[in-house]
Amino acid sequence: MELLNSEDINFEQYLKLTEAHMKVKDVSVFIDELKEDLANPAVIKKVGMPWSKTINEFEFKSGEVTLYAGSNGGGKSLITGQIALSLIKQDQKVCIMSFEMKPKRTIMRMTRQFSGTDLDNPLLKNKLEVNNQYLERLKKFSTGKLWLYDQQGTTNTSQVISVARYCAVELGITHVFIDSLMKCVSGEDDYNAQKSFVGELTALARDHNVHIHLVHHIRKLESEEKLPNKNDVKGTGAIADQVDNVLLMWRNKKKERMLRDGEEIKGVAADAVLMCEKQRNGENENSYHLWYHRDSQQFVEDEEAVPMAFDATGDF
Question: Which residue, among 167, 226, 218, 225, has the nearest Cα to 188 in the 3D structure?
Fold first, then answer.
């Protein structure tokens, strides 16, 4: 894995789109390209989420933007970290731009998900040695496939666009995670800026065949037990309108309280629900019940499932 730092790289030159005259082409160019496509159709590898229940229903297509929305503490960053690890397993190149968390903290949390165990447990024997072993395994697993942008706090949309374009053009990165939209656009009620930024992201994704993963918040609901929908996404409705996919993350806070209070939980109650509220180029908009494996901080298929082994051979 590598760090991207604005002090080391001049991202400004990647701010503007390709010159307009390079985008205006004679029809013969497109016809020749179509003939080539028909003669030698590209084999496109399907890239998806790490749970078997989603395999035939959702995929991360090149040139699209996926919005992940949820409440504060709802598990958005955890689930995107897990998805990032699964993309690396699928031979994708990933960049994480987190303005919520420092790279070393991001890596340590991903190491816990990668290891499948609680590396922070004070009872862990030979804790330093075990942590170093998993860090080395993660390094081997992710080097050449994972980059992190080293900047926290509020940024600006121009900088984010520049870095994302640099990643696509110079590094061949195929998936860019931006956490979060509100750190990029100052002012929760600046709807025009939100619309403009998301519009630029969709254009960038399309022009460079990269998939953008954008983390965002939902407005505060009457109750934490209520399931949100895409109309609950904070800010302008143009955000959900412009992106290709909308995934809502919901934690079962009622179950968590009952467990804390020692109450009996009857029936099957998932720890979280990942809801596909929009999939522009897909047929399924389903909800996926997931269980939280506390030691690994992974979301797994069911309450009996073991954590995913990301560097094991074969599929999950």
Answer: 218
**Architecture of the domain delimited by 2-10+44-300:** 3-Layer(aba) Sandwich (3.40)
CA distances from 1 to 95, 96, 151, 210, 246 (A): 9, 11, 16, 19, 28
Token pair belonging to 288: 């996926």
292, 272 Cβ separation under 8 angstroms? yes
CA distance linking residue 8 with residue 223, whole number of Å: 46
Domain ranges of the chain: 2-10+44-300
User: d(Cα 193, Cα 212) in Å, to the nearest integer?
Assistant: 18
pLDDT at 16: 65
Low-confidence ranges of the chain (pLDDT < 70): 6-7, 16-23
Q: Is 257 helix (H, G, I), strand (E, B) or coil?
A: helix
Note the pLDDT of residue 28: 85
The structure tokens listed for 260 are 């804390």
